[in-house]
Structures are given as C-alpha cells and as structure tokens.
Amino acid sequence: MSETSEILTDPDIGSPQKSPSPSSSEDENPSGVKDFLQRTAAWARSHPLSQQVKRDDSSSSSESDPGVRMKGRAALRRAVKERKAIEEMRRESMHGKLMQVLTSFWTRDQHPDWSVAAKDILRKHVDQIQDTCREAKRLKHTCEALVLLCAEDYQTRLKNKVDDVQKKQMWDDYKARALLQVPQQPRIVPYTGYDPKTAQTPRQRKVVKLPKSGERNQPPFTSRTRGAVGRLVLLDQGQLSPRGKYLQVCTQHGIRPALEPLMAGQSNNLSMANQNLTDHDVLALLPVIEDAQNLNAVNFSGNSRLSDQALIPLFRAFSTSAATLRHLSLQGVAMGPAAQQMLAELLMSRAGFVKLASLDLREVSLQRKGFQSLAQSIAQHRGLTDLNLSSTGFVPCGPDGKTCISLLMQCPQLSKLDLSWNCLDTPALLQLGQALSSRRALQHLNLAAAARRSSTDRDLPIEHFLELLAMNRALLQLDISMNHMDYRAALILEDALERTCIRTLSLKDNPLGQTGLRSILRLLCGKESGLCFLSMSGCYRGGAEKEAKIFNFVNPSGRYELDLTSPYDRSLLRMLYKKCERIGQAATSAFQEVSFKGPFHHPEKKDGRYQVPETGRLNFTFACDWRFNDEECWNYGRAIHLNWTSHRFFPRIHKTAQLLHQWRLATDDPETQTTILEVLGKDFVVSSALLREMCALQPDQLPAVLNKLMHCVNGGISSQYLAMMMAPTVKTYLRVVDSVKKLISWTPENPTGNYYLDLANPADFALSEQILVLNHWEIMIEENLGYVDSSQYGNRCHLRNMCYAGRKLPFQDVKQFILPMSDSFSFDYVSCKRPNGTEPTLDVDEFQKFLKSLARRNSLDTKLRLQVLRSVGWLLYLKAYQLRLLLGIFEDEFRSICAASLLFRVVDMQNEKIFRCAFDATQFSLLQKSVGYLACFPYIQPEQWTVDLDLTQYDQRRVVQCLWTLAEKERMDNLTQIVYLSAEKVQLNNADWVPPISWCSVENVPTSGHMKVTYRGGKDIMSWPTRKKLYEQFTHGQLQGSSADVNWWSSLKEAPKEVVQFLQLLLRRFKDFDQAFTFIDGVKGNGVINLKELTERVQRMGYKEFQGAAAVPLIQKVFRFLDPDNSGSISRKEWSTMSDLQKEVLQQLEEFAIFLHREFPFARDGKLQNVWPLIDRGGLGKMPRKRFKAALQEELGFFGAAGVLAEFLDVDQKGFVCAEDLLQLRRFTRGPRSHSFSELDPETIKREPTQRKGARRKSVI
C-alpha cells in the first residue's frame, strides 16, 4: 500500500482533496479515461525511475548506459501496469455486485422485474449501488458496456454454444475496453495529420493535448487531484493492431467502442444496426473495415444520423473487401446525392460490389436525380438477387417511373423485390406487370401500400397491374396489402391468378368486403390454382355499391354495360366467357342483344386467356343455357339440381384445409367468421364433414354455421337433415329452422305465390337463385311446347311485380337483374305447370280433417297456417268446391294469398266461378295482380264479369283480346259499361265510342291507357267452342266434356240488389224455379217471359216489396239482368240464372252448417242450438244482423259470407237472428243436399206452437 499512498499523494499536484460526497450530482462525476491518463502521467513524472530516465536521456548518448535506460523503461511499464491493477481492485467488489444483478436479469430466471425494460432495470440497480458505493454513477458507461456484454454473451451461448474458454477471453477483452470509455464530446484536439474527412490514419506519433487543471470541470477519478499535465505521448500506431487503432481513435474522440465480434476478429460480418451512430462513430471504424479482407455482410440499419461525410469514406473503405461483400443494409440512412452516386458506381464497377446479393435501402430517401443512375447500376449488376426499396420514393409519380421500373426488371438474377410504401402510378405498374411476363427469375414481390389512389380515377392503378399477372409464370410470393383494393380488384385477381403458380398471397387491410372475398375464396379453392397460403386479415370490411356490376358465380345472367377501358369490366367479360366454357355453352347463345361500336367478334383464347378488346363500350344480355331434358321437363326438383346445385363452386378436397385454416385464424373475431360463412353460403357447396369440422373448431358458432350454410350442404334433403341434427339443444334447432324456413318450406313442384326475400340472408339468397333458375327452366318448357306468352310484360318471365329495396325494378325482364347481396327482393311467381284434370283429389272425410287441422280454433297464427298450407300444397289436388271451403277458414285479407298458392292445384278450372264468388272486388283484384289477369280470366263463365285493365302491361292487353274475341263470336253488345282512358287523358265510353273489332288481335290493342269493361254474356248466345278454345289456349290444359258438364254458377255480388230481393221472393213461394217460370209464363205460355208478364205475375204474388208503381223500376232491373241479349224476352235458359244464384245461396248456408258440424262436436245430430251461447255471449236471445256477422268471425272463427247468411236466416226480415233460425241449417248436416227450398226442416215443423214466438212467415230455406 506504500506505492498506492505514494500515488495518491503526488506533491506536484498539491495537497489531497476531499472525496466527493455520495450525494454529489452526476454532472460532477469524473471522466474515466481523462482522469486515468492525468493520474498516470503525474505519477510517472514524479517517480524516481522516471527522473533517472530523464537525466539519462538529457546526457550525451556516448556517455549514457544503455542498460540503465532499459531498466528504467521496464520499471515504468511495470508501474503503469501496477497502477491499473490497483484501480481495478478498487472496483472489484462493485463489479461483482453489478454482474450478479445483470446476469440474473438477462437469464430471466429469478429476477422479479424481468418484464421491465432493460434500461429501467439498469438505472434501478445503479441507484441501489449508489447508496452503498459512491463511485456508482461514475461507472455509467462501464455498466452499459457490461449489459451489452452480458446480452451478447447470453445470445451467443444460446445460438453458437461458445465454450467457457472463449467466453472468458471475450469477457476480458470487453472489460478492458470498458475501462477506456469517456463521455461524448471531450475537449481533445486531434493530433496533427489526422484528416476526419478522408479517415486516413498516417503512421506517425500522436500527441494528445490534455486540458489544464483550471479548465477541468470534473474532479479526477480518484479522491485526490493532481497538477496540470501538458501532454501525453502515446505509442506509435504502427505497433497497434486494427482493433488497437480503433480503440485509439475512440479514446481520442470520446467514442464509445462498438461491441461487435468483427472487432475481435471472430466474424466477417459487421452489424451496427439501430445504434444511433454518428459520422464520428463510423469514421472510427474505418481502420477495422479497411483491414477486413473477407467482409461478408454489413448492416448499418436504423442509423438515421449518418450523412455523406461518413458514408463516402465508408464506401471507399469497402474497396478492400468489395469483391467479397454479399449483403449490404442501409435502412433508414440519410444518403445524399453524392453517396447515392458513389453507391451506383460501386454497383456498376468491376472492382466494386460484384458479388453483392442483397441490397437493403429501406426508408432511404433517394433523391430524384439519382433514380435513373441507381436503377441503371442495378440493371447491369449480375449477382443481385434481393433488392429492398421499401419507402424510398424510388418510383414516384412522374415520367421517370416507367423507365426506372424497366431498368430494375432488367437485373438478370433479381429474385426478390420490395417496392412497398412507395407511390407508384399507373404507367409504372403497367411496366412492372409487362416486365413480369418476360422475367423468369423474380419469385418474390412486395407491393404493400405501393399503389397511388386518385379521387378522380374510377380504376385503381393496382388493377392494371393485377390484370397483367395472368401472363406471369415465375412469381411465387406476392404481397399487395394496403392498396385500397375492393371487390373489383378481387375479381381481377381471380381472373388473373386462376392458372398461375403463385403460392403465397398477402391481401391484408384491403376493403374487399363480402363480394371481394367471394372471388378470393374461389381462387384459393380452385382446381388449377397454385395458391396455398393466403393472408387476408382486415379484408372483411367494405362492400359494393347498390348499382354496381357484380359477378354472380352461380347464375351470372343479367344485363351488362361494360366499359372495356376498365380492367374490372374486361375481367368481368372474361369471367362470363369462362362461365360459358364451364357449362359447355356456346358464346353466341349466351351473349344476346349485343351492342358495340363497330363489329364485335367473340375473343379467342390464347395461352389460356381470352383476348378481349381494350377499348369501346359493350352492352349485352347474358343468359346461361340450362340443361334441359324433354323427358323430365316437369320434374322441377331435378331441374334445380342440374342447373343450380351443379353450378355452385365445389372446393377441391386438398383445398378444404385452406378454408379451415382461414376459419381458425378468425377464432377471436366473430364478425370475420360471420363474413366467411356468408361468403361460403353464396357460392360454395360444402360437405357435411366440413360442416362438422367447423362446428368442432368453434362450438359456440354452431348456430351461425348451420344458419349460413344449411342451404349449401351437399347431398340433398337427407344431408341437410343430418346437419340440423348437430344442434345440441331444441332452442338452437328452432333458431336454425327459423333462419332457413323459407328455403326448406319451398317446393319447386308448386312454386306459385308471393315471395319476400332478404338477400343478406344466405338461405333467402339461395332461394332467389333457385327461383331464377326455375324461371328460365319454365321459359324453355313454354318455348318447346308452344305455350302462349302470359307474362306481365310479354317476355315469358314468370316473375311479376318485382321490387328491390321497396322500389320497382327499372327493367321488365329478370334476366337483366343481377342479384345484389343485401336489401329485400319481393315478387310474385306464376308457374306454367297445370293439372291435366285426371289427378285424384281428397275425398270428403279426408278433406274435412284437413280443414279442421288448419282451423283457427287450433290457436294457430294465420300466417303460420298459410306457410303450412303452402309447404304441403304440392301434394294436394283440389276441386273448385273444396278450394271454396278452404278459403272460408281464412280472413278476407289472406284469401288472395291462399288462392294464389293453390290456384294451379285445382283440377276443374272450368268451375272456377264457385270459389271466385268467395272474393270481394278488392281481394280478387289482389289475386289478379299476384297470379296474372290471364290466370284469373273466366274463360267458361265470363257472365257479369267486370275488370279494370292497365294497357301498359302485356297480359292485360291479352285480356282485352280474349274479351273482344268472345264478343265477336257471341255478341259485341256483351261488352258493356266500357270506360277507356287514353294516354292523353281522353275518356271514352259506349255512348260516343264503338269498340274496334281489330282488338281481337293483341298487336292492335293500345299499349297505353286504362280500361274498365263488363262482359254480360248469356247462355242463349254462348259460343261454347270459342270459350273452350280460349280455355285450352291460355290455361295449357285440355277441357273434357261439353257445356252440360260445367257446374254453372252465379255470384250474388255480381247481381243487383233488386235481383237478390226477387230471388228471396221466389224461394219463399215456389218449390223450384221451373215452377216459378211456369207460373209467370202461364200453363199454356209461349216459353218466354216478357216484361209485362213479369210485372203482372210478380204483383199478383202479394209481396209488398214489389207492389205499386214504385215496384215497376225494380222489376225492370230484374228483367234487364235476366235478358242479357236485350231481346225483350226471357227464355228458360236465361231464367236458369236464378238457379245459379240459388246455388250460391245454398253454398253459403252449407258452408256454415258444415263448419259448425266440423268444429263443434256438441252441435252435431241436429243440436245446432247448442252453438248459440257461443255466439250470443250477452244472453240477449237475438242479435242484430251486423252484430251476428261480427260474432261469427270473432267468436266462432267463421270467415264465410256471414252477411248473406244473416240475411237469409232472418226469415221475418226484421233485422234480427235468433237461435231458432239456426235450426234451419240441420238439413245441410245430414246427407246430400235437397233441392226443395219451400219446406221447413221436419224437426222445425214438429215443434210445439208455443215454442214459436210470433207469427213468422215461411222460411226462405
């Protein structure tokens, strides 16, 4: 310790000073190297051996003893080493504590704060040591070096498994460097001859000037201060290794040494990434870089403070190892024009980077002037394989963009190119796409966020590039993330990559939406597609415009207006040609109504790609040709399978794993999973195995999976049923059924009815597609069989009243409508399938059971009953009388819906007037609008039929043709009460306008205006052949038998009220209407009744309603009704109209009687009075007619003609109905109907007179 005390008490410096207190600030801490050099110089100058050496040197060389000088110098060197050892011993305990804490941190085994940042942990432990050791803050730079050392040692141990000997040597080396660290920017003047601009280090002695004692702001490293030291003479650099030179420069400039294996000679790679280097740091490295002969990789990434002042000498220093350098990374370096030019020269020079394989210039702001020179140098380089120009502005929007891209793509060995985060315009991307078609080496291309987006251009620049990818055959990996790509770019991508060899595709953060994802998933699962790995996170948002042209893979039929200058429209046209090729249809038959400026020729296929025109506008209607079989033309279920199920996309088995992978990636995002399910439900056919696997991966998504994919399960109804059985609970099962109920309840054998479909629901969307397929199928049937067109607009379309999103479609043919993926689609469908009249119908008992199961008294909602009826309607064939009874169990507002679904299941449509009488004018008008006016036209019994027609619609003009044809054959005067309102708002009627006979042809009927007309007709003037011909022509069926086989009928609603009153009078007096005719005509009459005879005989009957002069106008109305031909007399055939009215009265009474017998067992066997308490809840004994009608509907659930029923049951015409009146209906509940209406029920006759209150007249019944 004597030497130690001697060192600490140097007399030249002065008296000892007090050590700084532990609480002294960090700014007062000494600088390690500076203080160490000062103390060492002062001690060496005051040492006796040093004085002896000076004296010996001052004497002449001839007198000096060389042995003494050598001993002095050796002693001085030993003293310096001893001094260093003593200083190191003073820190030994502190270093041990530091290394113990830092090692536990980097191994992360037992340290409690391992999750905190390394910098915070280091500061924390340094502060802890400061509390016990006052030198803690002075070791700041040393601690940082130790941390880096530990990290480097830890990583090296894990990766390279360095043995203990090598780690110890590395630790000793790094510890020695740490002792030489100084703060940045010291006051040190560089030695003479050192040029920082050229980084040249001449081999000469260096002199370091140290600051004087008065200029020092920090105390020395030890507790004692020394006097000023003038200068320190260091060793000659020629005696130092390159590492020593580097440490010398670091010492002179206050640079923290870099802890890299290259400095120790243990590696050929120099990695200085993310170290915030300055120009001085890089200049200090130049001796090491110059000495490195086999430099392999250099990485200066993340050092944004570097400039040309350091980069230019750095590039020159690479000259010794430029021939071996293979990897160069300058990410984020601020390269100026001079450095860029020098880099380009090194790339072009034979003595430069000839073997460079990887060049990383990410985030380097390249100057505009250096673009072309750098691109030219890259184009001439024959070894470059990896080029990263991300976020460099390398190809900006301008005329040089195309040139630079062309030069880049000329690099012969370039296999990986990154142009992401640039601003490429359309010409540059076009040049890139064209160059890819001829380049076979480029396999990896990154264009993430590289395409410019303009608010004025309709097409994205990236779309032009994607279209040209179809010609590429070498690219394996493509990244086009964040390029604002929507469904248009997705369709272009599907068209272009259908047969390419790209295996990895990244589409992250592009707003593709559902429409775009349909194209991408079809591409992923395509048979010829080589795509195996797909990244599309963030692509599930976005959508298509409502008016956008969308390609529907299953049924692309529709009207298209394409601008062939747009890449999307060209790809859409190519996809339509591929659809024709897939289904085996000739393009000439699929493309109809083609409109193009100039002659249009269908494109030829070259190298697997259709060469479509690139200019002009093309308008056409695309119609898919369906598989048609004459033998099975009426098997609609088979037609749906051949033309819808088989047209969907079947994913290949080896591609199913890709779908499951995408499904698994969206595990934590329910919205994304829903989008995937909706996309699969639009185009795909999935197997039950895939469905089970998806449910197994996500059990909580099972209801959503079944809801979205139930309709596209392969295998038909049985597979769908098995899929529904996967529902774990009844609640889940009911939820699934509710979402797909429209699809599973729909039967193609009886599709007629009204539809309201939500196109956002995959099941409803699939149903709409199947209906469109069925529409085309029936059009082909009609054309093959030569049926008359009965459509709404004369285009054979079976869809009527089409509305989308609550608005009427702007076109008339559904072939022009491309199904969107959202909003509602409502329409009425009318099938051309009709029964032939020989089908078996339900017998009486079965039909009554059927009615009872559908009755409202079973607490079933009316809409639910209609759904059930519609789902089983294809199994039923009914008679007109049965349909009349079926309509009686539904409210008035639902009768048109019920009749529309079962209208074409009636086997005797010649008797349609039986159920037509159950409608009022409003409901029958709704039925006409729903199923068409021709379907509701009374071809056999048109008497007293009134219709209001809109002549703008084709089927209503056909009605005019039928009416005029009937009137021409029977009598033109049958057309009465004609009111024609022309398009010019000119109203014409019978008084001043004669109906033109030319309207017997539909071509001559006006195509505008409105008309209301009534056809009277009559049995005397009826033309049976004409009626039969019209029936067979427009109903597509054969009418067997003659007019005698028709159940002639008349409606009370069509007859005037005077006729109804006259009917009641005859029913009270006569047994039948033949007897009444004989009474009026006389026993020896002439067989006809004139007005005078009718007036006299009616007044002789004695009824007050037809007495006096006031009754004459009433009788005249009755006479005109019974004399439709205006002949002035009524024949027996014309008089039979009263019998037809009688049938209607009987039918209404019988409906109510059968209803009571069916719904109320306690009212059977003639005990109808037991029902009265249910009707008369108040116990009044009698009820007014109006209240009686309301009670029948509300209390009993009878929706028949309650008004007529109350009127005919009120025999005394006092306006009340009582329980006794119900007993008149007994005869309808027992056996066949009697035709005698003048006799009371036998049970009523046997009643005691005291039970009959009042003198009541004979019952009408």
Automatic annotation (TrEMBL):
What residues does the EF-hand domain cover?
Answer: 1110-1145
Tell me which Gene3D superfamilies the record gives: EF-hand, Ribonuclease Inhibitor
> One Pfam annotation, family name?
EF-hand_5
Q: Where is the composition biased (Low complexity)?
A: 15-24
Protein name as annotated:
EF-hand domain-containing protein
Name the residues that span the membrane: none
Sorted alphabetically, the keyword list is: Calcium
Stretches for region Disordered: 1-79, 1232-1261
Q: Where is the composition biased (Basic residues)?
A: 70-79
Q: Which domain of life is it from?
A: Eukaryota
